[in-house]
Each structure stands twice: as C-alpha cells, then as structure tokens.
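so my prof wants the structure for this chain in the tokens format not the other one, which i didnt know existed until like an hour ago. anyway here's the sequence
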Amino acid sequence: QVQLAESGGGLVQPGGSLRVSCTASGFTVSTYSMRWDRQAPGKEREWVAAIGATGDVAPYPDSVKGRFTISRDNAKNTVYLQMNDLRPEDTAVYYCNRNTYWGQGTQVTVSS
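here's what i got, hopefully its the right format
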C-alpha cells in the first residue's frame, strides 16, 4: 500500500539549514506530483513546495521563496526539501503528500 515516511527534522538555530526527506513505498515518486506542506501550532496548514511527475517545480510561495528547494531522487524513491536560512517562523511539522496520501510528518524547530 502507499506509505510516506518523513525524516530529518530537528532543532536548528536561526540562519541554519536542514534537509528533510520523504521516502515513499507502494508507488514510484517519479510518476506522481509530490508536495511538502507544513503546519505550525495554531495555524492553518501551508503548502511550501511541489514537484511534478516530469520533475518540474512549482513556483514557491513567498514565505519560502529563495530559501527552500524541493528535489527528488528517483533511485531512492525519495523526495527532499532543502531548507536554508531558516527562521523561527519556519517552525512547524512538515508533511510530504501525494494527493490524499500523507506521511506522519517531521518536526522542524528553529530556535536559538
């Protein structure tokens, strides 16, 4: 069955970098559009990055533009989110998803 497993979250200082991963099973990531969303406490879920089946990347929202990069490793069936110049407002649980399938999320905390 379809499963998505995020990993790589953690605590990072402002200005730091982190890469979170989403390893898929039950399907091939290169044949679907994949997304990263995040949800901070008390806030609505926010889309932050998407990559199409052909590898095309959607324009990033202003909140992460120039700092976040989505990528894919077809051999590992894994989607990544590289996050640079992290800010406290990036603190959230980060989820990868494919349509109605979601992972369990990985916590990213940006704090000094």
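also thought this was worth mentioning. The beta strands are 3-7, 10-12, 18-25, 34-39, 46-51, 68-73, 78-83, 92-98, 101-102, 106-110.
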